[in-house]
Structures are given as C-alpha cells and as structure tokens.
Amino acid sequence: MKKQKIKTQKREGLAALLFLLPSLLGISLFFLFPFVDTVRRSFFNTMGTGFTGTANYFSVLQNKSFQLAAANTAKFLGACIPVLLLLSLALALLVHSIRPGGKRLKTLFLLPMAIPVAGMALLWQILFDNSGLVNAVLLWLGTEPISFMESGAAFWVLVGTYVWKNAGYDMVLWLAGLDGISESLYEAAKVDGAGALRCFRYITAPSLLPTMGLAAVISLLNGFKMFREAYLVAGPYPHDSIYLLQHLFNNWFSNMDISRLCAAAVLLCGALLGIILLLQRFLHGEDENG
Amino acid sequence: MRNRKKEWAVLLVSLLLILSGCQAAPTENNAAGGLSGMENTNTGSKAGRYVETDITPDGEEKLHIVQFFDGKLSMFTAGLKTRFDSTDNGESWVKAEGPGAKVPELAGAYDIFVGKDGALLVPIMDDEGTFICLKKVFPDGTVEDFAVPDIDRLVQKGNFFAHEIIGLSEDKFFFSGTKYLASQDQSMPDNEENSAQAEGESVNSDDSYEPITAVFDTKTGEKLYDIPQEENAISKDASGEHFYFINVLQQIVKRSAQDGKEVQRTDMMQQESDSVMVDISLYSSLPNGTLYSADDKGIYLVDTSTGKKKMVLESIGYSLGETNNYMSGFIAVDNGGFIVQTEFVQDSHSSSRIYRYHYDENAKTDPDKELTIWSLKSNTIIRGAVNEFMKTHPDATVNLEVALGEDSAQTTNDAIQRLNTEILAGAGPDILILDGLPAESYIQKGMLADISDKLDFSDVYPEILTPMKTEDSLYYLPACYKATLLLSDAETLAQLDTLDKLVTAIEEGEDAPVVVIDGEGSLTALPEEQRPVIEFENFEEMFRCFWNNSAHAVVGQGEIQEDNLREFLSKIKWVSDKYRLAEEGENVAMIIPGDTETESNSNAMNYAMRRAKTGIYTINNLLYLAMFLEDGQYKLLPGLAPGSYRPVSMAGINAKSGAQDFAVEFLQSMLSTKTQAAVDTGFPITKSGFAAQLEGVKKFNVDRVNEEDKLPEDFEIETILKELRTPVFEDEYLSDTVYAAAKSLCKDEIDLDGAMREIQQEIKIYLAERA
C-alpha cells in the first residue's frame, strides 16, 4: 500500500514536472539565461573582452543621472502604489456592496487598461499640453496656465495616469479577495453587534492581506511600464521629475553603455527582490500574527 | 472518445507548430540582409549576376540610342553624323556614316524614335531648346520634313517646347508639348513645378498657351486622339492593341491603341524598392509585352495587371547607380538584358555613356567576399565608394543597409538600438557609417577596429588625419570633411581674426538691407558703403554658422563650459539684434546649392552678389566655393573653438567583423581618386581627390568665353589645412537644445541667465549619462 502511494506520488511528481517543463524552459530561455548573462556583463567591459570587477557598479552608483533616475523611480513608486492600493480597495468595496449590478461596473473600470499606450500619450498631449484642454480650462477660470510637461507637475500627471490606468485592475484583484471571505463571518460579527467599521477592521482587512501582497507586487511591476507613456510624450530626455530608470537604461543602450546598463539592471533587480521579500515577510508575519 | 481527444491534441499541436513556424520564418528580404525592417540592397547573387559592359564608342560624348521594331539597335552620335548598329542585342556594333553627315539640319536632333518601315522620326530643336519640327529619315539615308499639322500650328506661334516623344508602334507615336506664353520666360519648363504651375494658370485663360498631348500617325502625321495632359506614354502591350500610359498619380492606364479609350487603370505599387521617384523612371517593353522600368535605384519588372514592381537589377555596384550619372535612355532587349544610356555630369559638363547589362549565369560571386555596410541614412558618397569597390571586386557581394530609408517608419533611436543589439549578438555589420551614431562612445567602448596601420594613408592630408587619432590609433575614416569658412578680401580677413572682432565689426557695420518680399531685391548688388558685414537669410542660418566653430568649446570635456556658453549666447544675441533675425517673416529664403540638411550657404551667395562685405561658407565642394569666391580669399571662420572641422561619411570597421581585411579594402576604395573627386558634401581628404576637383574647376573655365565668368583656380588648400585642429562629431541633441534657448533669448522671451538655465537644465542629464 505504502509502495503504491510512493509510486503514485512519483508519477504525479513526474507529471507535474512535465507540465511545468515548457514554462520552465521558456522562463529559462527568455529570463534566467539572459539575466545570468546580464550579471556576467556587469563585470566586464562593453565588448566582453576585459574583466572590470566592480568598477561598473561604482561607476553606476556615482553617476548623477542614475542617482536622479533611481530617486525619481522610488519617489514615483512610493507615491503611486499606496494611492493606487487605497483607491482600488475603496472602489472594490463600493462595487462589492452594490452587487449584482457591480459586475457590469467592474468591466467599465477595466477600460483604461485597454487603451493603447500611443492613445494614452495622445490623450496626455490633448489634456496637458501648454495649449491643451486643462490649460484652456485654467485660463477660462482666470488662473495662470501650467506648463505640465516642463515642470514638476509632470510627475503628478504621471502618477495620476498610473493610478487611473491601474485602479480597475487592482480593484478586480481586491474583489477576488473579497469574494473569498465567507459571508458567515460577517453575519456572526453582526450578531455580536459589530458595525461596518469593526467588520472591516477585524474581518475584511486581515482576510485581504494575501491579496494586498499580490496587488502590491503587480502594482510595483506595472509602475515600471509607465515609462512607455512618459517616453512617447516627452522623449528620451523628459523633465527632471519624470526621468525614470528606464529612460536611463534606454539611453545607455542607445549609447552602447552596456556594462553600466547591466550593472544598473542587476542593482535594480536586487532592490526589487529585496522589496518583494520584505513585503512577503511582512505579510507572512501579519498573517501569522493574525 | 479517448482517441478523439488524442486526435484533437495532435491537431492543435500541429497547428501551433505551423503557426509558430510561420511567424519565425524570415522574410525574403530579411533573410538576405540580417537586420529586419531595414532597406537591404544586395549586389549580385550567389548563382549568376548581371554583367555590365561599357559600349560607349570611343571619343563620343553625345549619343542617342534607338531600338527598331525588329530588335535591331542603333546608336547615333550628335547630329546623327555617325551611327553604330547592332543585331545581337548590343554585343557587337558596326560603325557607319549617319544621315546627319550629309544633312546639317539634323544637328538639333534629340529623342529619336522609329516609325513605319524602319524610318526614323527625328525631333529637331534649336539652341534654346525650342521645338522646331520633325524630320523623317528613311533607311536609305534620305531626309524629309515630316508634317504634323496639329504640332506645326503651335510651332508657328513660337515658344513651343516638346516634353515627351515616344514611338509606341510602327504606325503611332505619342507627343506631349506646350506652347508657352511668349512674354513669360519663367513659365518655361525649367522644372516640373514651373511646368505644372504654367499649366494650372493657363488653361482657358489665354489662347497663347496651348498644351498638346496626343497620339499621332507616323505615316500621315494626323492626330489620332488626345490623351489627358497628366499622362505620359510608356509602351504598347503584347497584342499591340493597347498602349500603356502612366499618370501623375503613379497609375498605369491601359488604353485602346485604336481610339485611346481607357480600358484599365492600375495603381503602381512599390515593391522591393524604396524609390518613390516613379516620375523619373524610364520604361521599355519587350515584343511579348513584358514591361520594365528603370530608375537610379535599379531596373524593375513591372506587372501591368497588378502594378507591382520587382527589382531585377539593383543599381549599386554598377555605373547605373553612380552618383553623378543620370539615366537618359533605357531599352530592354530580347535576351533578358538591358541597354542603358546615362549622362555623366561633372562640373556642369555632361557626357553620354552607354552600358549593356546581360545576365551571366556563370558569373560567380565568392561567398567569402561578402561585406555588409550599415548606414543610418542614405549616403551618396558611400554608394559611390561601393561602386568603385565593386569594379575592383566583381565577385564580391556588398549589402548596403540603410536604416532610415524613404519608407522606414522607425525612429533614429530604434535604428541605433537595433544595430547595437546586432553588434552585441555578434551579428553586426562589417562596416559602420558613423554619421548620426554615437561614434565617440563606439570608439571608447572598443567596438571599432584600429585601422591606423592597415590602410595606405600616403595620399591623405596629414593635417586632417592626425587630429582624428586617439593615442596613435585610428578608428574611423571619413570620406570628406566640412569646415566653416569666412570669405572676404585679404585685408578684411586679417582684421577679423577672432569671433569678438567679427561680432564687433557686425555691430559697427551697416544694418541688414531691407529685403523685398518678391525676392528680386535680394539679388541686387549694394554700393560698398551700404553693405553689412554679413547678410544672413534667417536666424537658423546664422546660428548654425557660428555654432559649427564654437560647439566644442561650449560643451567640452563632457560638461558645459559656462563662460563659453555665456559668451556664445551673447554674441548670437548681438548679431541677431543687429540684423533683426529673430523677428518672424523678416527674411526671404533663397535656394542655394549647399548642404540643405544643416547649413544654408545663402550668405556666401550674398557676398558673391556684392550685398555683404563677407560671407560664411560651410564647404560642400570646390566648384561652389569658387563660384562664391570670385577674387576673394578665405580662412576658417573664427569661433570659440578655432580649428574645428567635421568629418563626414565616417566609416569604421566593426571590431568583431569576420571580414576585417575585406572591410579594409573597402575603406581603401573610399580613398580612391574617383570617389574622392566625386564627394560633394565636403572637401576631399586626399591630395589626388582635391587635385581632381581643382581640375574640374579648370574644365569649367575652359567653356567660359568671358574672362569675368571664369572662376579662381589658385586655391591654397593649405590655408585651411594648417588651421584644422579638432574633429568634431555633430551632436544633434546638443545643437538643437542650444538653438532653442538661443532663439528664445534673441526673441526676448527669456534673458541671458534664463537661456543659460534652460540649456543647463536640458543638457544636465544628457551629459551626466555620458560621464
């Protein structure tokens, strides 16, 4: 009987491996091997002919454009991810409460994600150009027009666009989490006299912690995709406030500064990994405490 | 059930494989060239290729070539004095006396075509290019006037020009011409624009302007039917019952040969070619109706039913694609070959060359002799060098990849990133044309091979070569160089030896003359006391002139040199204010020969026209400089970075190329006298090239009767060479950024500190990335 069980487990393990193999191969081919090569290149010169040690890393860390891009990227992610998570959670709670009609609304909130990047860039220009719609409204209201793309306001335009674009998607993630919470918990709490706030504090929030981890990681990764919009609108050298790490990577690649680009990519990867691990640890801890 | 599932699974997997296979398969073009999405010009093929033979008779400069309806070919010299006949598709020729030897009236013959019974129909024009009449030359050599009443009526009125005369069949020919307004010389067909304008303004308004576009009878001269004015005849079809025409919308219109009624209309599609210059294409068809077209890019097979064109002969590597050659005659012959007549133009002098192209299945190309050259933009000098190279390496294959072709949708940045990816993957081109690329970065990163000891530089001016070296190593070779010169008399030049002195002289000199908007006033010479120091056409011209010789000092050692930037902006502002250049609509632009990309040389023209005391000229070629100079002198324009010069058409060898030696041979061909003599976007870098260009100026003078029309021949290139110190790579981002701020400053939209701040803000990250 035991032998049979082991045999079955082995067979299942083999089947699982076979199922996983294609994606593993794909990930290895398109992500893992290139990443290993990136790490290798970060210790060599551009042509890969001379070992440079950690010189590329020092050069990157001392580079002012890297410092600016890293600070801007951190600032951007730091500003928009909390806003996005809170806003999308609020939307999810709202949509969840007006069921069954909320299902239709859910689809509506996903529409910004369907807008192509080029369309988004065009929209930016129509709205935020010096002679765009927003400035026309400001002029009509009798206030001074703002040069959105050539001032610090560009940063907030980028944050706003990110939140607008991703709120629907994160809302769907929250909704999935909300659907997983048993109604009986709320009913029992209500019997015990708990109000809506207490229900949220003691039932909804703790139950949504795993969802928050997932939403945070996905939002973090989506944050890096905002480069496309910024690049299409403002080119490779935008206003200082929206000069992100991807701008620097893109420009370094054009300028064939591959060694530093690889070193910076490894640093970014390390930082992201650190953040995700911290997040996991925090959420895991919360989960355990909870 | 289980089996059914299996079948479905197998089917789905097969479909997936097929679909993925479809996606992964390279296109024909990509497979040949490597870099997908780029124009790929391929010379020769592995199995056989077209072989070119120059069949121009010795000593003949002006020729006409015709094909008889039985396939026989004839070449006629000027005035039809001598003829050369071929019955074997141009392989061999027999010389004979032409009909013009005894009939002097044939002196003005051009565009000869064949009529009924082998008789030649010869249009005659006078020295002014005005159409006079048609003559009929019979096979026995007798000549008689050929009356075409509808054309003769217009000729009688005078000022009649023929645009196109084509023999469509033995009994029909196409004629297109216009009788222009006699009083308006500008309405003459100098170019397409004038012609179109004249046509547009005249119809119905004045009976002295009369265009005629029609098909006539070759026997009686009677007009058979009219053709819409916007159409030009091409050829007849296989049956002979229809004629093909092409219109301005690039549509092939098939018409009944009998009555000219439209039968079919097909949009011409561009296939395997980036050429949009169909209007300059020449057409020729075989008796079986196969239609070919030819332009400077090559020869194409045209599918008249779909309008698709397929390239059969790529011009690069053949005389057909040479920079100074333009095609004037094209005949497709029976054996799949072609006869092409070109006019070789150099220094305002043209001479006909006739080439025969036949496909030789045994002509081998050596697979080891393949070279890929990558250029961001189309480059005529490099095309010329490829042609020169192919002459000495006929068994080689040269792929000239132009990233930003005419139909390319990608940006410069996309193109550079694609190239970088290819290079990093070890599949990059053998030779990089560095214009527009981050050349300094490529050199620093070791991507280019050191060529300092691989080429024979004995003919290259050391003054140009030495500053381009990095610690005795040389990583690129320019085909030519540009330097910005100040033109004036020796005394004035001696006084204006610094930028400060030049700007002070401008300040103290006369104001800019009032320019008459109709343009006529801008061509009138001014009395000496009224001439300003320089007359610029617009702000951009002024900025570019001064920037060229100051850029290196404004942004040097990877950072902005604040004092220099401030001084540069101040000087620009002074000059702009003095001449009111920043005011919109103040100046009238003129079309001046020169580099239209970045510099206009109109102020050099103003100097030559005696409207200014000095002129600035960014050298393009010696002949233009001679035209601007007359009896003046020249020296490098003073600037904040004196001695700056710009290497142009720079070629570097990919350090990872597997064809290093072969690539070196190509670079050597860039130094050949012929390539160097043909450069026209800078000065040649070799002594023999400069001497050849000087020879061109002398030849130009030979044709001039009046002494005052002759150009100076005593150029002392050493005057420029001894001043050259720093090769400067053009940086579009920097120059555009400084330009934008300088313009705002000169328009008083911002002050000097504001302009400085704006530039520093814009350039800060750009420079930091490169630090």
Overall pLDDT level of chain B: 80
Average pLDDT of chain A, to the nearest integer?
A: 88
Q: Helix/strand/pairing class of chain A, anyone?
A: mainly alpha
What is the succession of H and E elements of chain A? HHHHHHHHHHHHHH
> What's the Cα radius of gyration of chain A?
24 Å
Relative strand content of chain A: under 5%
Radius of gyration of chain B, taken over Cα atoms and rounded to an integer in Å:
30 Å
Shape of chain B: globular
CA distance, first residue to last residue of chain B: 68 Å
List the quaternary state of the chains.
heterodimer
> What is the share of helical residues of chain A?
over 70%
Helix-strand category of chain B: alpha+beta
Biggest sheet descriptor of chain A: none
Strand residue percentage of chain B: 25-35%
Most strands sheet of chain B = 8 strands, mixed
Count every beta strand of chain B, where a strand is a DSSP E run of 2 or more residues.
37
Instruction: Please work out how many helical segments of chain A DSSP would assign.
Output: 14
Blueprint of the fold:
The complex is a heterodimer of chains A (290) and B (771).
Chain A: H1 2-41, H2 55-62, H3 64-97, H4 102-109, H5 111-114, H6 117-128, H7 133-140, H8 153-179, H9 183-191, H10 196-207, H11 209-223, H12 227-234, H13 245-254, H14 258-289
Helix pairs in contact in A: 1-14, 2-14, 3-4, 3-8, 3-11, 3-13, 4-8, 6-12, 8-11, 11-14, 13-14
Chain B: H1 2-24, H2 28-33, E1 39-42, E2 47-54, E3 63-67, E4 73-77, E5 82-86, E6 94-97, E7 113-114, E8 120-125, E9 131-137, E10 143-146, H3 149-157, E11 160-169, E12 172-179, H4 192-202, E13 210-217, E14 223-226, E15 231-236, E16 242-247, E17 251-256, E18 262-267, E19 282-285, E20 291-295, E21 298-302, E22 309-314, E23 325-332, E24 338-346, E25 349-364, E26 370-375, H5 380-392, E27 397-402, H6 412-424, E28 431-433, H7 439-444, H8 462-465, E29 477-482, E30 484-488, H9 490-495, H10 499-508, H11 539-548, H12 551-554, E31 555-556, E32 559-560, H13 562-579, H14 602-608, E33 615-618, H15 622-629, E34 633-636, E35 644-653, H16 660-670, H17 673-678, E36 683-684, H18 687-702, H19 717-721, E37 726-727, H20 732-746, H21 752-770
Parallel strand pairs in B: 26-27, 26-28, 35-37
Antiparallel strand pairs in B: 1-27, 2-25, 3-4, 4-5, 5-6, 7-8, 8-9, 9-10, 11-12, 12-13, 13-14, 15-16, 16-17, 17-18, 19-20, 20-21, 21-22, 23-24, 24-25, 28-35, 29-35, 29-36, 30-33, 30-34, 31-32
Helix pairs in contact in B: 5-16, 10-13, 11-13, 11-20, 13-21, 20-21
